[in-house]
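Quick look at the format.
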Amino acid sequence: MKPTLLILAAGMGSRYGGLKQIDKFGPSGESIIDYSIYDAIKAGFKKVVFVVRESFLEDIKAIYEPRLKGKVELVFVTQDISDIPAGISVNPDREKPWGTAHAVLVAKDIIENPFAVINGDDYYGHTAFETLVDFFNMCMDEGVEDEYSMIAYYLKNTLSDHGTVNRGICHSNEGYLDKIVETIKISKSSSDGDGAYELDGKQHSLAPNTLVSMNMFGFFPDFFELTESYFIDFLKTRGMELKSEFFIPYVLDQMIQSNTKKLNVLESDSQWFGVTYQEDKPLVMQKIQDLIASGQYPSSLWS
């Protein structure tokens, strides 16, 4: 088995104020992506695929190609508004691509093995990658063909002190996901990690141990064909909207509700961290320094 790591790195970083994908957080100039790739290679991933925008493709390649040469197979693909199935009419005034599930789809022609999906600006921890490799091996050893997986984090371990965040709220039953709901603008409402969000003009609360998706999933290649069929339906109903987004949680919910696939919820009590706002950067840098001090990483990842 040769699992692939698919990194969603096409975001423009509007709230951050720059390209988070290439910002430096480690002592030798490492980005958050570097730590994810390091952990993935150590866990057994053999190929890394970046999904980026055409406008900064060369900047990304100039950084990661030299660093990863000889360490892992590396491929880059671009996400664009025009990457849609033929014969579908969409709003010509739309300015941004179609969201995370669309970003996965643009890699459909270059992934042939089990693959993990992650955000480029999130730190997940080495055990998460090992857990996904174990899941892939279990499915292949036991001939399981109708299951995918996700790494689920506790809400309290994923909130920002500097503004709101979007999270996929997970509802599970006996280890399998029942439903995942993309919830936007969740704010930290207490020091215990409670969350709050507004819907239809009303304030709603979330418990600190609520399971949330951080867009870390384990899929098999049949995901592409299934997702493309959902994407066609999505565009037919919402393609004229300027800001509609085809999220991975939306796709998974469709699969679950139709009994097409089951999704293993693999819980993690790790402290997730990422950069949504520029104010998050000092905290992320300190967390990385702490991981280096504990022996989790060398001070220079690739030397």
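Next, a different chain entirely:
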Amino acid sequence: MPESETKTKNQICTTEQCMRPRPLWQRVIYPIIGGILIIVGLILWIMPVVPGFALIIIGIPFVACFHPRLELWVRRQMHRIGHAIKEKIRKK
């Protein structure tokens, strides 16, 4: 297998051309799950003991599955944030 093929398989899809359309059940169920996670995360964020921020971060990609362009934007942002965190860890 050529090296260029392995690079493209390991990369995150960040263009509209490489994204496949999601089935209807995923476009309906995933945003509902994401909305529930975000609401629970906001409720837990108010409580001083339990951190709800993690649930909000997990819920955002689920809500983004509703629309392909929104999903693409969230993928790009998460990819960018992931690289920034990796660089910060490497510098320590």
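Residues 25-91 form one domain.

See the schema section for token definitions.
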